[in-house]
Specification:
heterotrimer, A mainly alpha (199), B mainly alpha (96), C mainly alpha (610), A: 199 residues, mainly alpha, Four Helix Bundle (Hemerythrin (Met), subunit A), 7 helices, 0% strand, B: 96 residues, Helix Hairpins, 3 helices
Chain lengths: 199, 96, 610
């Protein structure tokens, strides 16, 4: 495993922006740190001969998803990270130890990986190479179609979730006749009037 | 590969963030970090094993992450519209 | 001997009574229910008599159980028993019409009473041992139902249960005997067994063992020592029950069983000696206990016990026909004694303590006559019935051994004493109570008249040979029981024995008459106190058997409850565990995520380290 200067730099940037994401108090700053993280990751992808994926990473992940986050942050004015009381105070220690443990276990696991001896070349991960894989019915075509459908469903769901409630009551169907509200009961004066008339 | 280690680190940092952040949106942000770390590890494996299938999977991961974010943020908006607070600890109705 | 359906009809008639009265008794009501029951029993009696005069009858349902037919056999032996059961039974039924008047369970009583007659007939007529056993159990059931007739009283229910349980011990012997006989001979039909035993070729000791088990069964049913504890307590039932079941019929079933199996017992010295010993012990025990009782029915119950002992001695010395003869005479005078006691109880409005009786001869003339005859018959006064059968037993005992004759003579002295004591305490002296005694109605007097006639006259069917008058019953029975060679005593000896027992009886009756009218001396009072407790037999059984069993039962019950509590505790344990685990359900999202992360760490670590 040869580690050059750029690798070290990328690694430091990754970890730094990651820590920034989890520690910054302003939500907008944290989102921006995430964008930076994604951009570094895209660069790493290019180095790892996954250029198409890198582009997608920048356009979709950094450019759409995190932007969506920013939109919502601004919609809800939820820029502040400290909301209400911390009802689970000691959780940060647990989280810290948990994260450390997780990191050690994962690193330990990952260093066990033995890459195969003769790995074929990737050719840069260009769309020309990925396309046949994606659209091959024996490979990933159906997954692709499913993911497309999933995106449609997610869109509709997002719209439905946000819609205000007036959509629920607007049904008029012969099977469900809408009941008119009962007329108001007669007020006291009206009662007296009728009694008087009777006599 | 070093990027595997990097992805492990990023994943752990994301986990720490998911547990520590008290606002729903920031928790979600950390989860996105974790997702990204997984994708990074996949690309590393792709390079190490010489298989392009991992990259295809990463494409799917990104797409699904998009869908998930859409729905998740929709949920957050819907919930917090009623509650006027984005505090996660306040959501305790499933307490048993 | 003919094969006829009329034979099971004799049993079917009281069964019909049982069913009809059981289902519709309340609607039939007093006194028709009683008359219906009595008529049916009379029907059985007449039918049985008719068949007997024709020379007997048989009936069988082959292969009722594999290899075992349901067979009935009316021969001379079972015929005599049937006469006693149905005849005396009929008289007691009629008497009970008057005695049970006004009781809310009137028809239920007669329903059970008919059930008893039916079961007793099955027992007597059964030729196949399982059929006999059905009757055996049936009379035990009827006895239980009737002892506990007034079941709302705890004591009555307890007495009924006690009778049933002690009987059960005997039943075990019966079952074991049946098993042994089946394995030895492959048949349980008595007529076939007779042939097979005579043919020989079997293990003698096994047959003795079978006979021993049968003896255990007979001891349970006939309340011999040591299974006698149930009979005094059985007096908790109504007086007709005591008269019929616990004097005349059911308790004699044991004797009948042994006589039926005379072919097995005869010649077996060990068994005979055992039977004699058991019978003698019972005779003495019953007599002594009777001398200390204050409840009029318990006095008579213990006398029954004593007389049953006499019957067993008769069987033991080989005088089988004499045992049956004694059953017949005893049925008359003991039923008479019981029913007279019942009339007195009825006259005094339910009083049963003899210390509050006395002087009844002035108030109840007819009943007094009955009581007098019963006393003389029971005490063995010549020429009443009790004398002849008792004398026959004494004669055969003399043959067995003069020492046995002397012992049995002593027992008969005691018999005279307890009889006269009963008479003196109830009928003589001055009335010690406060009621207004009134004589019984006719429906209760007439059966007693008939029984009185029997107590006087029935002895004459079995006179000893030295008297020049035909002995009817001996050849009649021997035809059915089996002819066992028997040397007659020399004429002089026989006459000496007769005169001795007659004189002794008269002397004992006279002495007792004087003795029981005065205040009791101290030694007698000590005897009385011990006798009242049955010489502590009940206490002994309680300590040795009942209380340990009860302790065990309580222990097991406590263990069961504890187990249940433990299971419920298990439930609450799970509940406690659950309530601890609920604390994990905080509802806080971050808490759950923390759990996830920790689990992830552990799982990946485990997977990696493997």
């Amino acid at each position: 495993m040869s580690v050059g200067f750029w690798e070290i730099l990328a690694l430091l940037l990754l970890v730094g922006t990651g820590l920034a994401v989890v520690r910054l108090q302003n939500a907008v700053h944290a989102a921006l740190a995430l964008i930076a993280n994604f951009l570094v990751v895209a660069g790493v992808y290019v180095a790892l001969e996954a250029r198409f994926v890198a582009m997608i990473q920048i356009i979709v992940y950094a450019g759409a998803i995190v932007v969506l986050f920013l939109f919502v942050i601004m919609l809800l004015s939820a820029a502040s990270a400290n909301v209400g009381q911390d009802l689970l105070p000691r959780l940060s220690w647990v989280a810290g130890f948990g994260a450390l443990g997780l990191a050690s276990v994962l690193i330990f696991a990952v260093t066990r990986f033995q890459p195969p001896a003769n790995a074929p070349a990737l050719g840069g991960g260009l769309p020309q190479a990925l396309g046949p894989l994606l659209y091959d019915p024996d490979k990933w075509l159906y997954a692709l179609l499913a993911v497309g459908f999933l995106l449609l469903v997610a869109t509709v769901a997002a719209v439905v979730l946000i819609e205000p409630e007036r959509i629920v009551s607007a049904t008029s169907h012969p099977a469900h006749p809408r009941q008119d509200p009962k007329p108001n009961p007669p007020t006291a004066e009206q009662k007296d009037e009728r009694a008087v008339v009777k006599r | 590969m070093i990027w595997l280690i990097a992805s492990a680190l990023l994943f752990s940092i994301g986990a720490y963030g998911a547990l520590t952040r008290r606002t729903a949106i920031l928790m979600f942000l950390s989860i996105e970090l974790m997702l990204n770390a997984a994708a990074l590890s996949l690309i590393s494996f792709s390079k190490l094993s010489g298989s392009l299938d991992a990259q295809v999977v990463v494409l799917f991961i990104i797409a699904i992450a998009a869908a998930e974010v859409a729905v998740g943020l929709g949920l957050i908006v819907a919930i917090f519209r009623r509650r006027e607070t984005t505090g996660v600890d306040e959501l305790r109705q499933l307490r048993g | 001997m003919q094969e006829t359906l009329l034979l099971p009809l004799t049993i079917a008639l009281p069964v019909l009574g049982f069913v009809i009265l059981g289902l519709f008794g309340k609607r039939i009501g007093e006194p028709s229910a009683g008359w219906l029951a009595s008529i049916l029993v009379l029907g059985s009696f007449l039918l049985g008599l008719f068949l007997l005069l024709q020379g007997g009858a048989r009936w069988a349902l082959p292969d009722w159980l594999p290899g075992i037919p349901f067979s009935l056999n009316l021969d001379n032996l079972s015929g005599v028993m049937l006469m006693v059961v149905a005849g005396v039974g009929f008289l007691i039924h009629v008497w009970a019409i008057g005695y049970m008047h006004g009781d809310p369970g009137y028809s239920r009583f007669f329903s059970y009473f008919n059930l008893f007659i039916a079961a007793m007939l099955v027992l007597i007529l059964g030729d196949s041992l399982p059929v006999v056993f059905i009757g055996w159990e049936g009379v035990g059931l009827a006895s239980y139902l009737l002892i506990g007739f007034w079941y709302q009283e705890r004591l009555n229910a307890d007495s009924a249960r006690k009778a049933f349980i002690v009987n059960r011990i005997g039943d075990l012997g019966f079952l074991l005997a049946m098993g042994l006989l089946w394995s030895m001979f492959g048949t349980l039909s008595i007529s076939e067994l007779v042939e097979k035993v005579e043919a020989g070729g079997y293990s003698f000791t096994t047959l003795t063992l079978a006979g021993f088990f049968l003896l255990i069964g007979a001891m349970g049913k006939s309340a011999q020592v040591p299974l006698m504890v149930w009979l005094p307590d059985a007096m908790a039932g109504p007086t007709p029950v005591s008269a019929l079941i616990h004097a005349a019929t059911m308790v004699t079933a044991g004797v009948y069983l042994l006589v039926r199996h005379a072919f097995m017992l005869h010649g077996d010295g060990f068994l005979s000696g055992l039977i004699v010993a058991v019978g003698f012990l019972t005779a003495i025990y019953g007599a002594l206990c009777s001398l200390g009782q204050w409840d009029i029915k318990r006095i008579v119950a213990y006398t029954t016990l004593s007389q049953l002992g006499f019957m067993f001695v008769a069987v033991g010395v080989g005088a089988y026909w004499v045992a049956i003869f004694h059953i017949v005479t005893h049925a008359f005078f003991k039923a008479l004694m019981f029913m007279t006691s019942g009339s007195v109880i009825h006259a005094l409005g339910g009083e049963q303590d003899v210390r509050k009786m006395g002087g009844m001869r002035k108030y109840l003339p007819a009943t007094h006559l009955h009581g007098l005859v019963a006393t003389f018959a029971s005490g063995g006064l010549v020429p009443l019935a009790g004398f002849w059968s008792k004398d026959a037993i004494l004669a055969y005992s003399f043959e067995y051994g003069p020492w046995l004759w002397a012992l049995m003579l002593f027992a008969s002295v005691l018999a005279a004493l307890y009889s006269i004591r009963w008479y003196v305490l109830v009928f003589w002296g001055d009335y010690r109570g406060k009621e207004h005694p009134h004589e019984s109605p006719a429906v209760m007097l007439w059966p007693n008249h008939i029984l009185m006639g029997g107590a006087i006259g029935v002895g004459f069917i079995g006179l000893p040979y030295v008297i020049d008058y035909k002995n009817f019953i001996e050849p009649f029975l021997t035809k059915a029981i089996g002819d066992f060679p028997h040397e007659k005593l020399p004429v002089l000896t026989e006459w000496t024995l007769i005169i001795t027992s007659a004189v002794v009886a008269i002397a004992a009756l006279w002495w007792g008459f004087r003795f029981f009218q005065q205040k009791m001396p101290a030694w007698y009072e000590r005897l009385e106190a011990a006798a009242l407790q049955g010489f502590y037999a009940d206490a002994l059984y309680n300590t040795l058997l009942v209380n340990p069993a009860r302790g065990l039962a309580e222990l097991l019950f406590g263990g069961d409850k504890g187990l249940l509590a433990g299971f419920m505790g298990l439930g609450s344990l799970v509940g406690g565990l659950g309530s601890v685990l609920t604390k994990l359900q905080t509802g806080a999202l971050r808490f759950y995520m923390a759990g996830l992360i920790i689990a992830l760490v552990l799982l990946v670590g485990w997977g990696v380290l493997r």
